[in-house]
Specification:
- The chain is built from 15 helices and 17 strands.
- It has 556 residues and is an alpha+beta fold.
- Strands 3-2-1-10-11 form a five-stranded mixed beta sheet. A four-stranded mixed beta sheet has the order 14-13-12-17. It has a three-stranded antiparallel beta sheet with strand order 5-4-6.
- A hairpin with a 4-residue loop joins strand 8 and strand 9.
- The protein is globular.
C-alpha cells in the first residue's frame, strides 16, 4: 500500500500523455464497483485485498496514523465515530430533499447545515466533497494497480484516466458537480457523470443491440424491457424499448472509442427512482421488530447509533440474506442482550413480508406504477417481454413476487439475469458522454484548487505515516524474533544473558515502541533508531547471527 500510495502521489503532479483509459464507476452506498474501459476489455478493478468491490468508507485511526480508505476501513458494524461510511449519502443534494432513514444509525457526527463531518481522532472537520476526494483517490490507486498487474509492470504506465460515474437520475446538478470536483482533487484527467439509466441502456446496447436492430429491420415487434435495480439505499425502475427505429447513431464512449453502433436501437421510455427505498429498509424493519419483541434487548444501551445497535442491525442484515435463500432461519448475535447475553434472531418469509408490506413492497409498487404512467400506461406499453433484476435487494423472493404480482405474471415467470451487479460500472464505461461539458466558473476553480491542495497534503502525510509504520513493524518483528530465539532456536545458547541484552535492548526497545517518543518521532529519527538497534544487535549477538547465516547458506 505504501508503494501504491507513492505512485499515486506522483500521478498528482504528472501530465499523462499516452493512452486514455475510461474507468466506469458505480458509486454504491455500501460497496463501489469499478471497471476499466474497452482498452483493457472491461476488466474489473481489484482492491489491494484482491476483491472486486470497494467499501464506500473511510477510517481515521488518529493523528499519527494514515487514513484507512475503502477495503482498509473498519467494518461499519464494528466502527466508531472515526469511520465515515455511506459517503454517497453525504454529498449535498444526493437525497433529493428526502429524509435519510439510515441517518439514525450513523456513529459519526454529520452536520448537514454546514456540510461538515466531525472526526474526533483528528480533531478536525471535513466536508462531504473532501471525503469523496479521498475515496476517489483510493479508486485511482486501485485502478493504477490493476493496470500494472495486467501489463506485468511495476506501475500503471502513462495512461490518462477518464472517470465516468453512474449515479441516480435524481442527482441534482450540485451533487454531480461535487462528484466531479472530488475527482479533480484526486488528479483525474477528465470526469463525467451519467445517469444509471444511461449506463443500463449502454450495457443492453452492447449485449443486444445487434439483435434488436435485426428485429426492427425485419419488421418484428419492439420488445419492452423492465429493469429494476435495488441497492442498499436506492432503487431505480426503468422501461427500455428494444428495436426502436430512431436510426443508427455513431456514439462514442468516454475514451473516444465507438460504442455499439446500434445504441439508438435501445430507447429509454421512462424512469423513476427513489433515494430512500433500498434493501437497507428491510434491515431497519427487522431491527425495530426484534427490539420491540425480544425482552433481552430492552435495555438502556440500545440506541440506533450505539455499538449494540450497529451489531443488532448487522444481525438483521444477515437474517435478511438467509431468508433470501431459505424459507426460515435464525442468526445469533453475540453479547448484545442484558448482561452481555447472546441473542438469537429468528424469522421466516411470512414475517418479513408482514413487516415490509408498507415501507418496502408498497413503495416499490408506487415506483413501478409511476414508471408505467410516465411511459403512457400499461395499454400503451403492451406486454413486458423481459424483466431484468439487478442489485442485492432484487435477490429477495418477497420483492420478486411483488413484481410478478404487479405485472400479473404467474409464479412460473422467469426473470432475466442479463444484468449483474457490475452492470452499472460497465455501463458507465460504455455510455456516450461529453467530457468537455464540465463548465467551471472561477469560484469552482478556486474550490477545486483548494481540494487538490488538501488531498495532496493528506496523501503526502499518509506516505510518511505508512513509512513510519513500516519501520516500527521492522523493529517490533526484530525484537520479537530475538525473544523467541531464546526459547526455540537451536542456537539459543549463543545469545547473551547480560542485562545489556535482556533489559536495555529487548525490554528497553519494547518500552520505547509503545511510548509517546516513538509515536511522535519523525521518519528520520525512526530510521536512526532502527539502524542503532541493528548495530547493537550485531555487537551483542554476533555469534548467534553468524550461526544463523551459516544455516541459511547451507540450506540454499
Amino acid at each position: 500500500t505504501l508503494v501504491n500510495l507513492t505512485k499515486y502521489l506522483h500521478t498528482m503532479n504528472d501530465d499523462a500523455s499516452a493512452a486514455t483509459i475510461t474507468v466506469g464507476i458505480d458509486l454504491g452506498t455500501l460497496q463501489t464497483k469499478v471497471t476499466l474501459g474497452p482498452t483493457y476489455d472491461h476488466e474489473l478493478v481489484r482492491n489491494s485485498h484482491g476483491d472486486h468491490t470497494l467499501p464506500t468508507a473511510i477510517t481515521f485511526p488518529g493523528q499519527h496514523r494514515a487514513r484507512l480508505i475503502g477495503e482498509d476501513a473498519a467494518d461499519v458494524s464494528r466502527a466508531d465515530g472515526n469511520t465515515v461510511a455511506m459517503l454517497d449519502r453525504l454529498l449535498v443534494g444526493s437525497l433529493d430533499g428526502e429524509e435519510d432513514p439510515l441517518a439514525a444509525f450513523r456513529r459519526f457526527e454529520y452536520d448537514a447545515t454546514c456540510d461538515a463531518v466531525s472526526i474526533p481522532s483528528m480533531a478536525k472537520q471535513y466536508s462531504s466533497t473532501q471525503l469523496m476526494a479521498m475515496f476517489v483517490g483510493r479508486i485511482k490507486r486501485n485502478v493504477l494497480s490493476t493496470i500494472a498487474r495486467i501489463q506485468g509492470s511495476e506501475s500503471g504506465g502513462d495512461e490518462s484516466l477518464n472517470f465516468v460515474f453512474a449515479v441516480p437520475p435524481s442527482y441534482p446538478t450540485c451533487t454531480r458537480e461535487a462528484l466531479m470536483d472530488a475527482a479533480h482533487a484526486a488528479s483525474v484527467s477528465n470526469c463525467a457523470v451519467v445517469d444509471s439509466t444511461e449506463a443500463v441502456t449502454a450495457v443492453y446496447a452492447k449485449k443486444f443491440g445487434d439483435a434488436a436492430a435485426a428485429t426492427a429491420g425485419d419488421g418484428g415487434d419492439k420488445k419492452v424491457v423492465l429493469v429494476v435495480e435495488m441497492g442498499h439505499a436506492r432503487t431505480s425502475v426503468s422501461l427500455l424499448q428494444l428495436g426502436d427505429d430512431g436510426g443508427v447513431c455513431d456514439a462514442s464512449d468516454a475514451s473516444g472509442e465507438e460504442v455499439n453502433k446500434h445504441t439508438s436501437k435501445v430507447k429509454v421510455l421512462s424512469n423513476t427512482c427513489s433515494s430512500t427505498l433500498g434493501a437497507g429498509i428491510i434491515d431497519i424493519c427487522l431491527y425495530h421488530h426484534f427490539l420491540a419483541n425480544l425482552p433481552s434487548l430492552s435495555h438502556a444501551q440500545f440506541r440506533t447509533n450505539s455499538r449494540h445497535g450497529q451489531r443488532l442491525l448487522e444481525g438483521c442484515k444477515k437474517l435478511k440474506h438467509l431468508l433470501s435463500m431459505l424459507p426460515e432461519g435464525k442468526i445469533t448475535v453475540e453479547s448484545i442482550g442484558k448482561n452481555d447475553m447472546d441473542v438469537t434472531l429468528s424469522g421466516n418469509r411470512d414475517l418479513l413480508k408482514q413487516l415490509c408490506e408498507e415501507k418496502v413492497v408498497g413503495e416499490l409498487n408506487k415506483l413501478l406504477q409511476s414508471t408505467f404512467e410516465k411511459a403512457g400506461g400499461t395499454e400503451e406499453i403492451g406486454d413486458i417481454a423481459i424483466v431484468e433484476l439487478t442489485g442485492g435487494g432484487m435477490r429477495i423472493p418477497m420483492l420478486q413476487d411483488a413484481i410478478r404480482e404487479y405485472l400479473v405474471k404467474g409464479e412460473g415467470f422467469v426473470f432475466s439475469r442479463s444484468l449483474d451487479d457490475t452492470s452499472l460500472a460497465l455501463g458507465a464505461a460504455l455510455a456516450p458522454c461529453d467530457l468537455s461539458a464540465d463548465i467551471v466558473d472561477e469560484e469552482r476553480k478556486a474550490r477545486r484548487q483548494q481540494l487538490l491542495e488538501n488531498e495532496s497534503a493528506m496523501a503526502q502525510r499518509d506516505v510518511l505515516l505508512l513509512r513510519k509504520d513500516e519501520i516500527r513493524n521492522q523493529i517490533e518483528a526484530h525484537i520479537l524474533e530475538l525473544r523467541s530465539a531464546r526459547h526455540s532456536s537451536k542456537h539459543s545458547s549463543l545469545l547473551p544473558t547480560s542485562e545489556e541484552f535482556t533489559i536495555q535492548l529487548l525490554d528497553g526497545t519494547d518500552d520505547w515502541l509503545f511510548s509517546d517518543l516513538c509515536e511522535e518521532a519523525t521518519v528520520e529519527q525512526l530510521e536512526e533508531k532502527w539502524a542503532s538497534i541493528q548495530t547493537t544487535t550485531q555487537h551483542l549477538c554476533g555469534d548467534y547471527l553468524a550461526a544463523k547465516q551459516a544455516d541459511a547458506e547451507q540450506k540454499d
